[in-house]
Design goal:
The protein has helices at about 80-90, 115-130, 140-150, 160-170, 205-225, 240, 250-270, 275-295, 300-310, 335-345, and strands spanning about 10-20, 30-45, 50-55, 60-65, 100-105, 170-175, 180-185, 190-195, 315-320, 325-330, 350-355, 360-365. It is of the alpha+beta class.
Amino acid sequence: MYPKTVLDKIVVVAPGRTCLFGDHQDYLGLPVIACAIDRHIRLVAKRNHTMSLVINKPDIGEKRIIDLNAGIGRVAVGDHFLAAIKVLGMYGCSPDMGYDITISGNIAINAGTSSSSAVVTAWIRFLIEAYGCNIAVTKEFISRIAHVAEVTFHDAPGGKMDQYSIGLGNIMYLETGKHTNYELFYEHLPGLIVAESGIPKDTTGVLGELKEKALLAIRQIKEKLPGFKISKASKADLPKLLNCVSDDLRVYLEAAVLNHDITRRALEEFRKPKWNVEYIGRLMTEHHNILKKYLGITLPQIDLMIDGAINAGALGAKIVGSGRGGSIVVLSRDGNQDKVIDVLLSAGAKDAYAVTVDQGARIIKSK
């Protein structure tokens, strides 16, 4: 139970995230390794003694008013604010007083670091804090509700990585299939850098396109090999599996199997008491090369950024998220970040900055 009390001010922060391993895997039910980063969405809510939620987003010049007296009604596709209210209503969270809300932050928009999921997660955390809930509230619950509100409510093409990474925090291994299992690693991973290409990405379009082709390849295999599960496939199985798939879909199957193999190897390393960061970096670059050569989600400017970082001594680098724009993540040697950042900026990055692993979405003030 999360009892409701009347609160005059609530402040929530929710981090961005970057994907270390498993891009274009979670919509196939395959695992990912991601981490929350210390770039944040900050939500500040002050009670206004009305029945309206007045939402200001100064970073993008938007304002919205939700009239609580009018009820929720039909939720338009992509309206994650109302979707969250609707979903939380099933758990006894019922907004019955107004707040003036400001949502701002330093997570780049449309850059592959999950600014939109951070907004949704912060919003859900605020709603529960302000209006209560009839179930025990855990980080996992917050993550699950965020995923429902942002993805499954309107059958959007994304997976679970963004919401769970932001909600749970730290470095996270997440099994994204029917049963959501995760493992958290609390150690610090030094030398992380995020670099923004400045090129907007078409998340829904790219994810929808590649997901459809990968799933079609899997269906073709199942027609010939009943009981086939992509999660059990290995590199050694590829010659047999590729013979079950039409020529135009083979590259998507191969990418899925090879990237899954990389994620497995990375998990083995993260489970060790002492990490080999050079090996982790090499795996990141190997993952990037699959995303580039097989799925074609990179662009010339991003290639220049990746090559520049590696040539400047970075241990590894890869594109993040849906691709064809957005950001990259780099693992540099600790202490070498400034040099790598300078090279990234010279290679055309809109911005580049060192990041550290964050503890996840949280209330920082409630009174």
